[in-house]
Task: structure prediction
Amino acid sequence: GQSLEQPSEVTAVEGAIVQINCTYQTSGFYGLSWYQQHDGGAPTFLSYNALDGLEETGRFSSFLSRSDSYGYLLLQELQMKDSASYFCAVKNFNKFYFGSGTKLNVKP
Amino acid sequence: DADVTQTPRNRITKTGKRIMLECSQTKGHDRMYWYRQDPGLGLRLIYYSFDVKDINKGEISDGYSVSRQAQAKFSLSLESAIPNQTALYFCATSDGDILNGYGYTFGSGTRLTVV
Result:
């Protein structure tokens, strides 16, 4: 089976940096993805890591350590529009299993 | 027009009724998925299909069935709806391409309430 753990809620101020962690247990790991979901909206794809290390896309970066079964999403220069839920998801062969999500509150 | 379209957007139905949620996509992707989202539980996979003749159960398929009518259409049915099937349902597609990070494209969701 699969299990993923991420904090339920994180609060940070505008302009700051925040890190959202994800630890996972799975049989057959292919990679780790991150998705953003605004209230009432559809999840949108942010990143995918198959190999260890840091992947950077603009203000967002994603990190993976396969040996530690751990990854994180790093958001820099936080903006109010970054207030949303963030989900990590493990790829198990040909499908993804999602964590329960981290609600990020960005305050002025 | 949206790449992945789900209908209806909202639906209230009675316990025991049969209901179908529809999903169509214009992305040309072979892989389609149905997920259910409940507060605090994230997204859970119900069924998935990699082509018209391929249907696979996910984590929580009991009480649900699917039909892949064409590459672009994937429907989810609740044969006899029950209140604990009240949830937000998402359809997603993927081209399965590693260069795109295997990213899903989600529809806007169907909010289903069973009373």
